[in-house]
User: Which sequence fits this backbone?
């Protein structure tokens, strides 16, 4: 299953790496493909992960989550 997170505030590849590392550090997340150009992170989960957990991980890196679909 995948979830797409729309994120505001990422400007470069370093931003992508911070978000990727934060998301992939969550139990149940097997992969995160992050793009500052599209402002998204596509997260592949191997088990159910609450949207709040994903949002908190991104916002702790000082980026703003707009939506999770």
Assistant:
């Amino acid at each position: 299953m995948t979830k797409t997170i729309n994120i505001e505030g990422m400007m470069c590849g370093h931003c992508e790496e911070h978000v990727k590392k934060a998301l992939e550090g969550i139990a149940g997340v097997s992969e995160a493909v992050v793009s500052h150009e599209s402002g998204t992170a596509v997260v592949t989960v191997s088990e159910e992960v609450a949207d709040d957990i994903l949002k908190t991980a991104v916002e702790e890196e000082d980026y703003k989550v707009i939506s999770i679909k």
In short: The chain has a mean pLDDT of 97. The radius of gyration is 10 Å.
